[in-house]
Predict the structure.
Amino acid sequence: MSATTTSAATAAPDFEAVIGLEVHCQLRTASKMFSAAPTHFGAAPNSQTDPVVLGLPGALPVVNRQAIEFALRIGVATRSKIRARSRFARKHYFYPDLPKGYQISQYDEPLCEHGLVQFVLDGQPREARLTRIHLEEDAGKNTHLPGRATSLVDLNRAGVPLIEIVGEPDLRSAAEAGAYLRALRQLVRWLEISDGNMEEGSLRADANVSIRPRGQSALGTKTELKNINSFKFVEKAIEHEIARQIDVVTSGGRVVQETRSWDAERGTSFSMRSKEQAHDYRYFPDPDLPPVVVSPDWIARVTSALPELPAQRRTRFVEALGLPAHDAEVLTGERALADWYEAAVAAPSKADPRKLSSWVQSELLRVVKDTPLAECPIKPDMLAELVALIDAGTISGKIAKDLFARMLQSGERPKVIVDREGLTQVSDTSAIEAAARAIIEAKPKEAAAYKAGKQQMLGFFVGQTIKAMGGKANPQLVNDILKKLLES
Amino acid sequence: MSAASTGTGTTDPTTMSALALARAVRQRELSAREVTTAHLARIAAFDKGERGLNAFLRTDEAGALAAADAVDAKVARGEDPGVLAGVPVGLKDLFVTENLETTCASKILQGWIPPYDGTAVARLRAAGAIIVGKLNMDEFAMGSSNENSAFGPCRNPWDPTRVTGGSSGGSAAAVAAGFCPITLGTDTGGSIRQPAALTGVLGIKPTYGRVSRYGVVAFASSLDQVGPFAGCVEDLALALEVISGHDPLDATSIVEAPSALGPALAAGGRPQGLAGLTVGLPREYFIPGTDAEVDAAVRAAIRELESAGARVIDVSLPHTPHALATYYLIAPAECSSNLARFDGVRYGRRVQPPGGDLAAMYQATREAGFGDEVKRRIMLGTYALRSGYYDAYYRKAQQVRTLIADDFRKVFASCDAVATPTSPTAAFKIGEKTADPVQMYLADVFTLSCNLAGLPGMSIPCGFTRAGLPIGLQLMGRPLGEAALFQLAAAYAARTDHARRRPTLALEAA
Amino acid sequence: MAITRDEVKEIAELARLSLSDEEVTRFTGQLGSILEHIDALSALDTTGIEPTTHAVPMDCPLREDVAGAALPAERALAAAPVRSGDFFEVPKFVSGS
């Protein structure tokens, strides 16, 4: 990715990209935006509908309170201005996956406006402004089968609550857009309002991209890039579009305002110019839905229930726990992970936060790659106990790693295993001395070599002694005693 | 007629009120089956065929008889069969009925068998009413004469060469003709009150939000309201009480419980039953364009109210002249949106030109499926909602709507109801106004404001022209002020017999 | 404001109606005379007047997020003019390009 960035930048160093993302995010409610129909993903075709979802004549919408609550959560988290009376409007276009011939959305009176998204790029904190966050209903799915003159329509997805997060054109590179989108995904998961799964379509991004000569403040003509449905392709698609526009301009052409669709397989985009584009959405306030009133009290309740947000938590991990910035970023990638880590820090064992951080990153994350953290048999206080045992010299690092594997299997606390199996390090100097003497006597040649100045032979004796003691000897003590015996 | 021989007593069930029928069924004087059979027979005799009225688009004999048997079984078991036990009820064909075809009198929806019941229908069934069939109407409720039905106009029982009014023409005619004592209609700009006036029955459009719109095919969502037709004020009250009340499935449904209408009926029925009530006469509704016979009958009715104790005062609703233009922006705009769902994908008819793509299917389906008036209003509404035109048209109309509603608010500070003619003329000839949409729209000139302001409005029979055509008096009240209208109607009914007159149907005469 | 034939055609396209020539002519005349009536509104000063979107003012009621029963697919699809298995079937959208 960075290679592409460089090539585009070196090919035409005079241009700067201006990017704004429109992100659609499905809310994880049990029922649909405007009716009680269920929302199971992956259900049999057309099995998640009711008269409202099907747009049957006579059916009427009723707003899902939880969807408003979820939208308020991200509104407050992005420090948006919440509208006390927001309104639903109808947006009209004909398409088979849109049952009523209009989508119920919000137009000039959205729920949230003027928010801010914080994200990190190359270790540097950044911010991008939000124009608005509004609520709407999702459409169904149209499947075009190759070689057939017809398409198939499944309305299971129709009516699933969506928020549309419209960003200001504050992003200046594909990498920045990627980081912004990842931060949004992290946020919606953090707030537990969406699973943020791009591959399953619960998070979808369209990008408005334009270029302008560096230093110019007026915006260039933008294109809208659609169908970017995987994190893998976000940066690639935007990068490609920036390069395409630079090509057009440097070869004397003009960028045409149009919608382009990203073709991930071919790694290119194509124009969606068609009759469908001649839209006039004919917005007007939905007469079926009075204004949605959000009381200051409701906003206060949402605000006080809001968890500490990723950016704040990152800062606190660095400042209060002394973690390196990178560690803090990894540990705040998911709220569950950050919570897990903090529970370990807070456990009675009082383990060192930095050592805990490296154990979480090197060992824990390796084993919970494909399973939810909550299902991991090792609980935060167990890891804390393990790290504390190392710190106290009770067990060696090597034994700790074995123990970790066994805790993972049995779910037993480390102390229980250590006590039962006598894994405590031997720190009894007389026992170590006896073992060391026996080894030195058994290896006179090596002992002589050491005495003759071959210092590295000490490691050999340490290894042999620890091995003789079943791996439980305190390495530092073994080291000290051997030195004393060999040098006497 | 043969229907008269059914029943246990001497009374023909088709001449009885809903209240009397329900009482007879509950007291086992009549079975629900007998009542239903008698009404179905009358419909078969006078509604079908070349010379029939064409009030019903379809009857549901099997469903009706099964429902009647269920009521009779309940009565036999000693259970409460409901306040409308065994009462035959007809529904305008835009009430969604589970397993019973619902077309809105449109070709585009022909053959649609809904998988659900609307709220008002469910409440009727729960009260023991027998749904006998679906009634003719102007296609998608757009019209003032019932001539815009894809299945032919409904004839006026008082003169089959004349219109019933509309759009709920079938609902009005069915009550007038004795096909059923209660029917439901909807009123977006006068679609209950105007046909009630033209057929000599009572009809009420309640306060917007009083009756759930869930399961009622939408024409103009911010104006549409469900209401009953009946042959007497007591039946009208009974039907309204059954279908009223909050519905969580309609976000515009009023939460506040409706007031009981019994006390209002009782009060109105007493001598000087209107003492303490003030009735306003808005000068903008008494204008030269109104037919002289209509004007005279309405003024006579108002004198009658006065003699029952009402204080009558002159008032003004100055923005009334703008109601028509306001209505003809708002209603078409909302209709163009509401009718976008008829696209030949999920239900209804599809027309697929050979080799055509999706756009061709949409266009052919909608072109063939919608009638002229519906297309005209979709076009008008689409025009008004276009980007760049919205402020000048739709938004402007909604602002004028505020002015019209404010007029009423001011007037209702000093009176409990206003009285006006329902329609400027009695029933006109079939075909008389079909060529000129604007002339047709003028038929609703007295009824539109009530919808724009969301107020309750009632039409009651108040006399006849020399040619024997019914004339209606319109009463409009405060938001949620239905009780005052019933009190006025009860007082008027106690002093006159216009509402009791019934037409002689062609075959009866023969 | 008079409406032109071209506008009538444009609006018909937006509303997905394929009007015949005769209909275009008729609607141009009829819509023109209706709009003439409607244009009288523009003379009315409505500065500062709030538009009425709901005749009976109320706040939007909110529904608790409880999933109910879905309509069985067979019932959802029962009225489809054309279906293929458990899907609604439609002609393909042929794009202009």
DSSP finds 16 helices and 18 strands in chain A. Chain A touches chain C through 54 residues (CB under 8 Å). The mean pLDDT of chain A is 88. Residues 308-421 of chain A form one domain.
